[in-house]
Amino acid sequence: MTRNLSFTQILSDFFTHPMRAFFLLASFCAIVACVSFYIASDYVMFHKFVFLGLFVPLSYAGFLLTAVPDWANYPRNLSINAYILFAIFLLCLGCGMYDVWLGFVFSLVFWLYLSGLCIYMLWLDRNDKNFSIVAILISFCVLNFAYIISLNQTYLNAQIHLNIIAVIIVGYRVSIVIAKEALRANSEYETAVFMPNFVYKNLSIFAICIGILASIFNFSTQVLGYIFLGCGFLLFARLYEWHFCILLKRHFILFYYVIALCLSGGYIWLGVCYLLNFNTSYPTHLLAINAVLATIMLIFNIAGLRHSFQQLNFLALSKVALTLLILAGVFRSIVSFYAFSFYILVPSILVATAFLLWALDFYAIFRDNDFSPDPE
User: How many angstroms separate the Cα of 66 from the Cα of each of 154, 255, 331, 361?
Assistant: First the structure.
């Protein structure tokens, strides 16, 4: 249903359904992080702050403030909580532009408020089926607090791996949804059921947790190498689930598959780099861009469409955006070996363009369509 709303009504709608406001704000932050390479004095630290301290918590807030009320049967309007989180975000952004450490302090406040709200909703419903989500939220709070009091960037780097654990957990649920859509589109398979292998999923999560702890406690590079190599092969083993033409011919599953391939390849490469004492920055950026950022954008697309009375059919600009994001990761982690312009310049332009295109597509979708509950 197409709507014709005033700006005030649009703003009210976006905060009544926080997914809309926070997904768009996260896209804005991704663009700011890319622009910061050309305007910030300490651009390396500032882009880490924007991605880890702003983009990630905003993305999680948008997803969780839509999903958790559904899981916990929470009927109340969350707009007041959304406005509070928005105010914390503004403080975080403003302080971060002055002092990155202070920005991370307010980022911790954001995580604490979001965690407390989600735990409260789940507790009211006596819901014990989402322990993994609660554990992820608490872990982000712990790692942020550890960085604030120590200024040890190991805790920031650990957040990349923690994000990947979240990607695996949420991706497991998303994979069931998108596979069901793909099977439903073919009358011969509409009664078929796709069930991803939860054993490989749990082993992968356990291995990455061990890797996070080993990196925090300064285990040798040899130990880290074997741990991350094991993570990569466990993730690689999960790819067989998608090796069916009926699934891979759907564009949203093809994107999911390419992201999963980059995730497994990134960990294998990271393990080799630790074992051979090579620079780990290259595979780490492949994981950060092609696994974390790309999965978040994929979920932006899926959740944005499903909660706006739309079919699961990515729009042209959204397909271009995901393609640009994947290319950015490849250029930053591989092509930059051979040309310095692919180290910062090209990837930053591609990432900023990708999120701008996504925001243009979905601002119009959110503006023109009512919010819909999860169709499942």
Answer: 31, 23, 34, 20
Domain boundaries, the chain: 1-150, 152-376
The Cα-based distances of 278 to 187, 221, 222, 227, 306 in angstroms read 51, 10, 12, 16, 43
CA distance 272 to 202: 23
Q: How far is CA 97 from CA 19, 46, 47, 101, 320, in A?
A: 25, 8, 11, 10, 31
Query: Residue 296: enclosing H or E segment and its boundaries?
Result: helix 294-306
pLDDT tens-digit map of 27-44: 999 999 999 998 888 889
Q: Do the beta carbons of residue 148 and residue 101 sit within 8 Å?
A: yes
| CA distances in angstroms from 205 to 154, 190, 228, 326, listed in the order given | 19, 31, 11, 23
Query: What percentage of the chain carries pLDDT values higher than 70?
Result: 98
User: Nearest Cα to 229, choosing from 266, 271, 262?
Assistant: 271
For 212-231, the pLDDT digits (tens) are: 999 999 999 999 999 999 99
Query: Which is nearest to 193 in space by CA: 258, 246, 234, 250?
Result: 246
CA dist., res. 370 & res. 96, Å (int): 35
Place of tokens 């900023």: 352
Its sign, for the CA torsion 157, 85, 60, 9, is: negative
Strand, helix or coil at 2? strand
Q: Which residues contact 138 (CB under 8 A, 6 or more apart)?
A: 115
8 A C-beta contact, residue 226 and residue 275? yes
Among 353, 356, 334, CA closest to 343 = 334
The answer to whether the beta carbons of residues 82 and 18 sit under 8 Å apart is yes
Cα–Cα distance measured from residue 161 to residue 214, given in angstroms and rounded to the nearest whole number: 12
Instruction: Answer for the pair 301, 322: CB distance below 8 angstroms, yes or no.
Output: yes
pLDDT for position 373: 82
